[in-house]
Write a structure and sequence with these properties.
Layout: H1 11-22, E1 37-42, H2 46-58, E2 64-69, H3 72-81, E3 86-90, H4 100-108, E4 114-118, H5 123-131, E5 136-139, H6 145-185, E6 189-194, E7 199-202, H7 204-210, E8 231-237, E9 243-255, E10 258-267, H8 269-286, E11 291-295, E12 304-307, H9 309-315, H10 319-322, H11 337-349, E13 353-360, E14 366-377, E15 383-392, H12 394-443, E16 447-451, E17 457-460, H13 463-468, H14 472-475, H15 486-500, E18 506-514, E19 520-531, E20 537-546, H16 548-599, H17 605-637, E21 645-648, H18 649-664, E22 669-675, E23 681-684, H19 686-702, E24 709-716, E25 720-726, H20 734-737, H21 759-769, E26 773-779, E27 783-791
Parallel strand pairs: 1-2, 1-3, 3-4, 4-5, 22-24
Antiparallel strand pairs: 6-7, 6-10, 8-9, 9-10, 11-12, 11-15, 13-14, 14-15, 16-17, 16-20, 18-19, 19-20, 21-23, 24-25, 25-27, 26-27
Subcellular location: Membrane
Pfam families: HATPase_c (PF02518), HisKA (PF00512), PAS (PF00989), PAS_9 (PF13426), Response_reg (PF00072)
GO molecular function: phosphorelay response regulator activity; phosphorelay sensor kinase activity; protein kinase activator activity
């Protein structure tokens, strides 16, 4: 609780401070502040709420989150939905009387510290608030940012500290209760003796042992010297003059902060009596003619604690050699397991049994032992020992075995003859069956496989080597997934695991398997779960069928269908383009001939010649179109002739430029530039070269505006001949450049300019025949440059 300097500190705060001070050896004061302090403000006065927000904003608090509500019901709803570190409560909320809201909030959220805000400077009310669960009491008129933050932090810390103290107190009380319960319920007498030998505590078992009340023993001298770690037996006299023998064990402890001793006392009177009786019986058993052993089932492995002289004579072992050991040392590998199981069952059920065992003496010689076992119990019916009586019946067993051997030999002779006959028949049938199955497995075209649960090949038939090229011997013991294409591998591993984990019984998949030569073959895999006769998963088995030919056939069919589709599309485009290209010259021819036929008598010679020239040009265009179609057809069919002959490139280019200039007329200027090529002769197919350069120059003329300049450049280098055809035309969009050499493809910006889309396809085919390469560089509205490069190999080079 925080007050302004003029106020007093209430008693509750002082009491909490004293608890902290006096118990600092039990409580560790830590920083209880959370990283972000979540504050719930319950204030119906908006001005006071703004004041709290302002004070928190001015404070040096690192992080805080303020939730403001005006009614207690809203606050209760927020407390259900969120965890708050502190509650700031206005004491004067409407609907509540003085501390009613404090009591109600503390009852609903006892684990959230509560700070009361009020306008009343009333110390009595402050004390009552703290008693009802508040951690502090602040008067709004005296409150500043430091006071508010200090009150919030102290409230959180004090609340957490009180909670820790309460938890520690409960733990100590529970621990003390458990300790007292352990001692009180212990069957042995428990006595705590201080360093002066005075009894300070006894448990109920001690009262029963001494047959008196605790008050009669407490604060009395124990009467025996005690020493930590000591164990001793002594006799005590109970009330009523009855004596008893007890065993005492002493350990050092503390009692009420001082050194003390804890004496654990056990009544061993009956045990001592039993030991005395046992010694009497032992002398009687020593004179018996049968071997007698006594074992203690209460000790681990039921060791021998006694054997008589007859047992020593019968087995050859001395008493010192067998005491402390289980009787198993008499057994051998051929001791009857059924008889041993009967002994174990009798020991477990604490009953008598009689069995015949083949045992072995110390020197290794066998003897037949008729063993009778009987349990020994104390006065309370509790098992304490087992007694075994042994009789050597070796001679009797030999006589019985001799008779039995004679009978068995006769029966064995007959059984052996029958078995030999039947076994031969079975072997013949198995051999024939094995040969049939092996023949099937070895000759089947499919791979038959088996794996273990780790995916390791355990069986593969010869078809494995026929299909993959890997030998069966080299593959057995390898991981199956190592032979699968990397792209298919993980999926196949997942399917294999689904079988091994019994998520499915079988699956069928088409997978690529590795071939010995590094290639991959398509395999249809059928795999299923394999289990043994008891239903345990032991691996997988199945078949691998080579479907590579089928997959290739399917791929060929798909390719053929795609090719047919492409041809159909080309056919449609060809028909569309050629019909359009033929229609224009045919229309020209038809109109010109119609005019000449009807009006020849009215036409001048000049007009007639003009119409004849138009007919001639139209026929030439049609002929050129047909030549292009035939040339493409030959190229696609692989029947295009390639006849390279010595050719003077420089003169060839000059002649071609002159021809193209005549076609272009005065609207375009075609220039020719020659670099280092005047005297060189090259072997080239003149007809194909004319197609290449003619089509490129023709396109440059067609797609260039009037007045544009077209350049043909010839360059000779040491290893190549290069042609550049440059224009200043409309350019080719970048999106069209990749398909520019495809049949019938035309750029998207040609507009109404006529064309078939065959020219550049012909150019590409002709360049390929020369082993050359054609590239394009173009910008829209600036122009295009085609570059044709022929390497100077044996087909191109010739003498200078």
């Amino acid at each position: 609780m925080s007050f302004p300097p003029s106020q007093k500190t209430i008693a509750s705060t002082e009491e909490i401070t004293q608890i902290d001070t006096h118990n600092n050896h039990d409580c560790v004061i830590t920083n209880f502040q959370p990283a972000t302090i979540k504050i719930l403000l319950i204030e119906d006065n908006s001005g006071d709420a703004r004041l709290v927000r302002k004070l928190l904003a001015e404070a040096t608090i690192s992080k805080c989150r303020l939730t403001h509500v005006e009614r207690l019901s809203e606050a209760l709803q927020h407390l259900k939905e969120d965890n708050f570190d502190v509650i700031l409560l206005d004491l004067s909320l409407p609907g509540g009387h003085e501390l009613d809201n404090v009591i109600q909030l503390h009852a609903i959220a006892p684990n959230v510290p509560l700070v009361v805000l009020t306008g009343f400077d009333d110390e009595a009310l402050a004390i009552r608030s703290v008693r009802e669960g508040a951690q502090d009491y602040l008067v709004k008129g005296y409150m500043d940012s430091n006071l508010l933050v200090r009150a919030i932090r102290h409230a959180i810390e004090r609340h957490q500290l009180l909670a820790n103290l309460e938890q520690r107190t409960q733990e100590l009380q529970a621990r003390e209760t458990n300790f007292r319960n352990v001692i009180a319920t212990n069957m042995d007498g428990m006595i705590i003796i201080d360093s002066y030998g005075v009894v300070r505590f006894v448990n109920p078992a001690t009262e029963a042992l001494f047959n008196c009340k605790a008050e009669e023993l407490l604060n009395k001298s124990f009467g025996f010297p005690v020493m930590a770690g000591e164990t001793r037996d002594f006799c005590i006299i109970r009330q009523g003059r009855e004596s008893a023998v007890v065993e005492m064990r002493v350990t050092e402890t503390s009692w009420e902060g001082e050194c003390a001793y804890l004496a654990s006392i056990r009544d061993i009177t009956e045990q001592k009596r039993a030991e005395e009786s046992f010694r009497l019986n032992e002398r009687a058993m020593a004179a018996a003619s049968n071997g007698i052993v006594i074992v203690d089932p209460r000790q681990p492995d039921s060791p021998i604690i006694y054997c008589n002289p007859a047992f020593e004579r019968m087995t050859g072992y001395s008493q010192d050699e067998v005491l402390g050991y289980n009787c198993r040392f008499l057994q051998g590998p051929d001791t009857d397991p059924t008889a041993l199981a009967e002994i174990r069952c009798a020991l477990h059920e604490e009953r008598e049994c009689r069995v015949i065992l083949k045992n072995y003496r110390k020197d290794g010689t066998p003897f037949w032992n008729e063993l009778a076992i009987a349990p020994v119990q104390d006065a309370n019916g509790q098992l304490t020992h087992f007694i075994g009586v042994q009789s050597d019946i070796t001679e009797r067993k030999r006589a019985e075995e001799a008779v039995l051997r004679a009978k068995v030999a006769e029966a064995a002779k007959l059984a052996l003859e029958t078995e030999i006959t039947e076994r031969k028949q079975v072997e013949i049938a198995l051999r024939e069956s094995e040969e049939r199955y092996r023949s099937v497995v070895d000759n089947v075209k499919e791979v038959i496989f088996q794996t273990n649960t780790a995916g390791i090949w355990t069986f593969l038939n010869p078809a494995w080597q026929d299909i993959t090229g890997f030998t069966v011997e080299a593959s057995i013991g390898k991981y199956f997934a190592n032979y699968i294409h990397p792209s298919d591998r993980q999926h196949q591993i997942d399917l294999f695991q689904s079988l091994i984990t019994e998520q499915q019984e079988c699956y069928r998949q088409e997978v690529r398997y590795l071939n010995h030569n590094g290639s991959f073959r398509w395999i249809e895999v059928y795999a299923r779960l394999t289990q043994d006769s008891e239903g345990n998963v032991i691996g997988t088995s199945g078949t691998l069928n080579d479907i590579t030919k089928r997959k290739r056939a399917e791929e060929d069919i798909r390719s053929a269908l795609e090719k047919a589709k492409e041809l159909n599309e080309l056919k449609s485009r060809f028909i569309t383009i050629t019909s359009h290209e033929f229609r224009t010259p045919l229309a020209t021819i038809l109109s010109s001939t119609e005019l000449v036929r009807k009006y020849s008598h009215k036409l001048s010679e000049e007009k007639k010649l003009l119409h004849l020239e138009r007919i001639q040009i139209a026929v030439k265009n049609m002929t050129q179109l047909l030549d292009d179609v035939l040339l493409i057809g030959k190229a696609e069919a692989g029947k295009l002739d390639f006849n390279p002959k010595p050719l003077a490139l420089t003169q060839f280019c000059r002649d071609l430029v002159e021809e193209m200039q005549l076609t272009a007329g005065s609207q375009h200027a075609i220039a020719f530039v020659n670099q280092n090529c005047d005297t060189h002769i090259f072997c080239m197919d003149e007809k194909l070269l004319r197609h290449i350069l003619g089509n490129l120059l023709s396109n440059a003329i067609k797609y260039s505006p009037a007045g544009g300049t077209i350049l043909l450049e010839l360059i000779y280098q040491q290893e190549a001949v290069i042609f550049h055809v440059r224009d200043e035309g409309i350019g080719i969009p970048e999106a069209d450049q990749a398909k520019l050499f495809d049949l019938f493809h035309r750029a998207s910006n040609v507009g109404t300019i006529s064309g078939t889309g065959l020219g550049l396809a012909i150019v590409k085919k002709a360049v390929d025949f020369h082993g050359g390469k054609i590239t394009i560089a173009s910008k829209i509205g600036i122009g295009t440059t085609f570059t044709v490069k022929f390497p100077l190999n044996d087909r191109i080079k010739t003498n200078d």
